Amino acid sequence: MRIKLLQDFKALRGIAGIAALMAVALGLAGCETNPPRRPAPPPPPAAYAGPPPNTTVYAYPEHDQSADQQSRDRYECSLWAVHQTGFDPSAPNVPPEDRVVASGPPAGTGTAIGAIAGAVLGAAISGPYDRGAGAVFGGLTGAMIGTASDASRAQQNEIEMTEQERQQAAVMAQKASEYRRAISACLEGRGYSVR
């Protein structure tokens, strides 16, 4: 009978240790904080990899200019517009995989830290004969919490990248508009009707 009571007591102590480990792990899960955000530097104009902005300008000769003269005027006005606006519609776009800069810890860091911390806590709060099981259970619990933290961080990074891409598209559209305005003014000055 006494042996049975000792076994029951050890089992209860193991369950209490597991419950305490879960409480500590869940409490620590709320302690994670993200590092302060650093403002991203403005991207260079060529870093936009979305669809090309609209730079189409239709110019119709008003003074019977020849095809060669029209081509020369269009080329010279394009060079002048690029110089005035700093926007070159013929510049190649950089693919997204070359312009993404990841910040923060590498993927899986939260999982590794959670597993190690959970294993240490699990072994520390377990009884002398249950330290191995406590370390395993704590490690698994910590790894699950760390994985959730990593997934949350990855989702936040994706949201930030989407916002950055929207900002880049707006900047490119503004620069394209300035370019169209500049080339239109140049062509109108050389005797073309621009639409």
Concise synopsis of the structure shown:
With 195 residues, the chain is mainly alpha-helical.
User: What is the H-and-E element order?
Assistant: HEHHHHE
Helix count from the secondary structure assignment: 5
Mean pLDDT, to the nearest integer, reads 76
Most strands sheet = 2 strands, antiparallel
What does this structure look like?
The structure is a single chain. The protein has 195 residues and is mainly alpha-helical. 65% of the residues lie in helices and 3% in strands. It has one domain. It contains five helices and two strands; from the N terminus they run αβααααβ. The chain has a two-stranded antiparallel sheet with strand order 1-2. The termini are far apart.
Sequence-ordered SSE layout with sheet pairings:
Layout lengths: L1 H28 L29 E3 L5 H19 L10 H4 L9 H17 L5 H59 L2 E3 L1
Antiparallel strand pairs: 1-2
Helix pairs in contact: 1-4, 1-5, 2-5, 4-5
Task: Using brief descriptors, characterize the structure shown.
195 residues, mainly alpha
